[in-house]
Design goal:
257 residues, Rossmann fold, 2 domains
Length: 257
Amino acid sequence: MSRLTEELIQIKQEGAAAVLATVIEAKGNGQVEPGAKWLIRDGRLKLGTIRDAGFLQAVLQEAETRLREEKSKLVELQVPQAEGKIEVFFEVLPSPPKLIVVGAGHIAVPLVRFAKILDFQVTVLDDRILYVNRERFPDADEVVVGDMAQTLKGIPITPSTYIVLITRGHKYDEPCLREIIHSPARYIGMIGSRRRIKACFQRFRDEEKIAEEILQRVYAPIGLDIHTETPEEIALSILAEIIKVRRGGKAQSLSGH
């Protein structure tokens, strides 16, 4: 078994994210051969060798961009202090998407079930042990009982994380939103009426001095505009909105996004 295969197996087993960069063409440059491969993980070169520090930095930066956007791409790079250009294909090996469901009420039950069908890693948070337990959420990867805002502080959030705030009231939603609004999460959605959300955002502007572009990250009211009524329909609209964000779709969200 090759070293590359071993590393790829380990990445899959750990549920980590990485980028495999392959040289497609090296025009007028003898430093790099076509077919050369580099594995980038956690912001550093995990496999392969790049002697030129400037070129190494360019490769690492492009890998970071590819991971953030979750899109593979063929990129033409210039080697500093050398003639010619190098075409590199950056293949994204994303970590499994993680869904954090904050609030274990009636919408959360079908939401978790649907999300697992789509291969999300799902964590459910609530401060009520009668609601967040294995009997209600047998499919969840993790169920956590405790103060929801405080619990969010200790959960790693990455660009592959999607967060849904569906607690039993804005009294609980707002502290949770405050903890995650500056996080690198790919998606933040919050349930609630337009009136309550408008008031919440105004408090964030006035009291937290949160910029408008940060507030615009939040999908609220949550979900796609499909005239939902039942908990299952609401859960479906939420998950559909998450897929829209993940895949770059254009369906109309209730929030106007």
